Please model this.
Amino acid sequence: MLEQIAPNGLLRHLITLDGLERALVEQLLARSRYYLAGADARAPRDASLHGFTVANLFFEASTRTRASFELAAKRLDAEVLNLDVNTSSRIKGESILDTIYTLEAMHIDIFVVRDASTGVPDMIAESVAPHVCVLNAGESNTSHPTQGLLDLLTIQLHKGDISGLRVAIIGDIRHSRVARSAARALELFEVGELRFVGPQEFLPDAEEFPQAARVHEIDAGLDGVDVVMALRIQKERFDEDSEIPDGEEYFRRFGLTGQRLKHARPDAIVMHPGPMNRGTEIDSDVADSAQSVIREQVTNGVAVRMAVLAQVAEYIRAWRSAQS
Amino acid sequence: MLEQIAPNGLLRHLITLDGLERALVEQLLARSRYYLAGADARAPRDASLHGFTVANLFFEASTRTRASFELAAKRLDAEVLNLDVNTSSRIKGESILDTIYTLEAMHIDIFVVRDASTGVPDMIAESVAPHVCVLNAGESNTSHPTQGLLDLLTIQLHKGDISGLRVAIIGDIRHSRVARSAARALELFEVGELRFVGPQEFLPDAEEFPQAARVHEIDAGLDGVDVVMALRIQKERFDEDSEIPDGEEYFRRFGLTGQRLKHARPDAIVMHPGPMNRGTEIDSDVADSAQSVIREQVTNGVAVRMAVLAQVAEYIRAWRSAQS
Amino acid sequence: MLEQIAPNGLLRHLITLDGLERALVEQLLARSRYYLAGADARAPRDASLHGFTVANLFFEASTRTRASFELAAKRLDAEVLNLDVNTSSRIKGESILDTIYTLEAMHIDIFVVRDASTGVPDMIAESVAPHVCVLNAGESNTSHPTQGLLDLLTIQLHKGDISGLRVAIIGDIRHSRVARSAARALELFEVGELRFVGPQEFLPDAEEFPQAARVHEIDAGLDGVDVVMALRIQKERFDEDSEIPDGEEYFRRFGLTGQRLKHARPDAIVMHPGPMNRGTEIDSDVADSAQSVIREQVTNGVAVRMAVLAQVAEYIRAWRSAQS
Model:
């Protein structure tokens, strides 16, 4: 299994939240808070990555996550190389590792990788030279660690200590890297109660998250929770499996409406990783309500990515110092 | 209707030239002249946008306008995020406003927006937070204000005072945002005479520009003018409407040739917004003649965009100061 | 014929290695060595292109060469404008020279051009203003001068003086700009022996490289050589011409295996321009062996491009000084 922590104790790769120590995550969250802007809406920045090169290597299309990592890197004064490589050209051409070795030979310091297949970020991290770091920007339905961290940060900023909280995640958890990383992050911080809410087909196998409650009915799922996280519905799944209700029917049964939200605590916050299908998994009024922290999640996402980039840059600096 | 000027009197958005005061436009032109290069062909630059982030959000493909805005922003030391979002993915995914809110949450300060539908830049400007500015980089056939400004600047640099000039715009004015913005700019500066020249199907409704003369015959249209502006012919229109002559026939009837240009004043300048269809709307020799200022338009375009960016950055700075 | 050297003796364009003086190439190689990183894997950088704008104008798709030029320019502190213009849109729209004139009017200082047609970089270099430089980033099967330089640099770093060396180039030399530029570079440095190895259909006409030996059998081709350069097989050629063996058959007859490499000198280096088809033109073990310098070629490529960019920037500076 990949070692994300270097022998000197510093974070080198961020592929998964599994197995990370809570102290390290706390450190990342503290650094993220440092990278949140002040009241004048000015983007925070410093020169932590001056002289470093970050390659955004997206084998799966993305606008928002790519933009978030790109802005994070540029605001730390890195050079950024954007490479949108679709899977078909990857199959036709050289192997993915040869692409990595080629870019590494151009002095890429940090790879930000998104891929539709489980294991690709891990494989890359296992293969790069000792002064190179790899960050997972979304991996199949397996892992999306910076999303997990930004969700944790968002909850912490609103609710403080996680351990007393009840959190409901609603939707297609089974196929969601967002849900997996959020759940891992919440478990690490000993969340009071974690509920997975959705139709049977959308819930992961019970053994994957033994501590999570599994609820098929949304009102019961929302009862008394402090945090509601609605997931994006991948509409393309509706066709594949007749067991799953289509858009309108889904909204009727599982859509997060103001009426249903009343089952949660009055000060519950509403989260969504975006992009939203308004009227499918979430009602438009709820998305724009005072309880919604959806846009804050986006802001926190840039801060988390700046923190992670700055953290692994410390590893690289330490490696360089050790060479001289 | 959208207010482009902030309560403190500063320009905040630039969506249309309609309703702008002449003094403000004069100020933008003066600033544009400041951003024109000296004799050594060196690109002008300063740090007016240091610490700002500009997002080029192009829902309609563009190479030259995107490049012009990108270079303008970079030469003012901004961070630039390029987002080419085609309309189909916009329809499938989240709403355009959710895309905007997401990017705004990443601390985008200025949105540069191009869209094929009338009203989209306006809608975005109405929706963003008070410290965010929106610039229209081309909107359907409605508005292209920086193009209007660069045309005005180009004429002014060659001819000085606009009020004594006769200007002919030739081609598909009806479907041209370039022509609309140029006409508005010229009217604001009380152009002596404005002529729309083209087949009936290519002229806008008379009530839209009551002051403009409408001429169906090119030699008469060019008679004695100081400025000739040829428009790009959208060749795809030829198929849709049998009333409109095709490429060769169009050139025979309305193409700007050296012979026809003799009807204009001997010192008349020739303009074209680009990209040109040589041999359709303009003869190649005319495009490359001493009277052509087509390449100067491009240079002036970067300067105008730098001026507009620097101007709205002043609004943002004032907003920030007012917060603290 | 295009003059690549300006009247003041400085390199202005780099379109081909043909006709360059050896002293100039030595100067470029010395500068490239300066841009190679130290032992701490840090990317070298300086401000040689501060205030300059480089446009990467790729009419033919490329990931690695575009990335190499982009990083080279950014690490010299240039502004970089990436323009991926596919050939179809080029045909539909304005002429290629009008695209160039438009970009030139935006104060592009250096064009980096890749095109599938012979003559395009040359035509552009003939057409630009006197303060603008053009670099060829790959032209049909004709020329790829920075690749030739990086190959020369790589050999020199490992073997020192070129004149005593025996070099074998294996594969589809006839259709390879890489092979042509490498051969020109090696001839300029009076390589001891140059062998073209491949099936008859893959070898260029004898009169093009009269000094090169032509060998149809790989073991004989490798006998006693100091340098082995395997070329990428364009698999799409297999279908067109039944004379050429397909992938597996090609590997059986011409694939570079460890067994065959034993015919070369024991300290022979193995080169490949990338991207590799492992198992077609080269065995995976050979690509990763201690004799392989394939990744060093990539690193040297960035250094060579930095050197060439910095060199033509000197021409531009001299031109500017002469204006004032």
